[in-house]
Fold this sequence. Notes:
Chain A is of the alpha/beta class.
Amino acid sequence: xxxxxxxxxxxxxxxxxxxxxxxxxxxxxxxxxxxxxxxxxxxxxxxxxxxxxxxxxxxxxxxxxxxxxxxxxxxxxxxxxxxxxxxxxxxxxxxxxxxxxxxxxxxxxxxxxxxxxxxxxxxxxxxxxxxxxxxxxxxxxxxxxxxxxxxxxxxxxxxxxxxxxxxxxxxxxxxxxxxxxxxxxxxxxxxxxxxxxxxxxxxxxxxxxxxxxxxxxxxxxxxxxxxxxxxxxxxxxxxxxxxxxxxxxxxxxxxxxxxxxxxxxxxxxxxxxxxxxxxxxxxxxxxxxxxxxxxxxxxxxxxxxxxxxxxxxxxxxxxxxxxxxx
Amino acid sequence: xxxxxxxxxxxxxxxxxxxxxxxxxxxxxxxxxxxxxxxxxxxxxxxxxxxxxxxxxxxxxxxxxxxxxxxxxxxxxxxxxxxxxxxxxxxxxxxxxxxxxxxxxxxxxxxxxxxxxxxxxxxxxxxxxxxxxxxxxxxxxxxxxxxxxxxxxxxxxxxxxxxxxxxxxxxxxxxxxxxxxxxxxxxxxxxxxxxxxxxxxxxxxxxxxxxxxxxxxxxxxxxxxxxxxxxxxxxxxxxxxxxxxxxxxxxxxxxxxxxxxxxxxxxxxxxxxxxxxxxxxxxxxxxxxxxxxxxxxxxxxxxxxxxxxxxxxxxxxxxxxxxxxxxxxxxxxxxxxxxxxxxxxxxxxxxxxxxxxxxxxxxxxxxxxxxxxxxxxxxxxxxxxxxxxxxxxxxxxxxxxxxxxxxxxxxxxxxxxxxxxxxxxxxxxxxxxxxxxxxxxxxxxx
Lengths: 326, 446
């Protein structure tokens, strides 16, 4: 099992320097702070958290779009810190990236054929026939048939679901082993969300892809992944298998997050949900100790607001960074 | 392809665009015609007026179409040449090698105004002794006036209008008026009818011969009239078209493309490079362009291509503030991030992802910028730093101004190039504004 690890993230930190008057440093935004996890070949992993918790920064750092401040990402046995500029480009091409807003993710002045051909041209697939073959396969995989109907279309002529399928087709056209999808369905109609997720799931199983699925919507997680990571304030607060996680949420933040998930139940119209008050923490000046303590109803005075909690094992493969489990 | 088809369909909905486009097409057709009909070297030679090419043209003549206006009957130029009429000469030998050569050159004068001037041109072939000619002017009412006797060299001109001896014989009137005036009329009116110039020649060599050409200059000439050097303005107006279009098109393309690329590079790389591009932009914004063109014209070269290069160099950064604002927005687009994720390099992103995005918004501005450069060339010519060789519209205007065309009443000289400049500007503006409404639909309601 261990030699099957595709991606290894060790103590990853991505900070952004804040400057005043253009040159005086006034501190760092700790968007990703000390994050570690492993991803196996063919595994689907969900990363969950509210807006501004560092999910997207984590995705972009993994994709090589941001250089990590410290820590290490090991992909397929090679550390990306040791890559040269050319190698980082090649590394980026080995990963697929699916973005949140499908319309924004497609250049509006290119037709579908051109959009799908671009990654191929950049990565050295010069022969026209080979390009056509790969494009056709990618579109067929995403059930966009007949292919010829879609090739000359521009993004604005497609529906949201079709646009997102083009984005996914582009992400997998180079045959990556890992796809990072950053809230791939949050901009879509509820009616097509499940369809897109099932399609991705199907592709994942068919091609044995590893997928990092970033979302703030816990209700879609169960359709998709085996394992889940919960991020809060740039840190991972809980990780575990999906079923275990849904049955037994351990960190108070996870509990609140699950509580906030809406179920189609008429009774909900009359009930108020218990959600933690307050705001997400400032990542420029994070609170000392546990970053959730100002909003936490189980806060232990003198401990939670002083010392950062380490990961406590709750069950096999399930851990939470909370002093309640010490 | 489909987009272009759509654009063409949209254009059809704007009559102003259609009119503008048709004028542009006509200008392009005229340019092509000018270049084919009158190749560059011929046009330059004509415009220089070498070898007295224009001697048969009147000075400062209005366009001939003025005569088509009702109630106007302005004299046209009359040319009578003995060279084209074999057999009119009566040759009588009177001694060894000496002959008399007599003939008459006749013409009908039907105009109500006097001609502009009269010249008689001679060409003679001889070894040592030139022929001797007596010239007699016969009027329709039977009077005969002898003109000055001539001993023409191989090629010579008798400027009838400037002969002061002749003026004494025509009652103090300028000869070309005196020769044609109705006797006793005050003010003078021309006598209409058949005039004849009789030539009584004596040649002194076996092979000697001569030809005489009488030119009675009118007040109108050709499609566009002539200037003070008798040059046909049509040459300049025709050749001005391709020059104006080429100059303005190259200038507009150059200024737009460089501004675009520098702005894109600055925005994409950011940091000190962006700062540098911006400072250079601000620098070019405060540089006074017109004085620089004039200085380049005075001290470096007045060639239109040097001026063109200066225009492009000065505007390398000119548009980059506007483009920068657009690029800053586009730079954050998700599709750019996606392109980086699949490994696109910096230059590919700049050229394939940043720039194509704003090209549709630029095309209208580009089209409306073209007349600016047409006018710039004309202004520079008017300020005296126009190209010394090329015939251009601005050059015509500049010479008209230098020779007091409006003061002397030669309106055609100023109006023709001015109208051409105006309709060129109008055509590009009408087309550009319509394109603007098509490419930027938000403006449609305004």
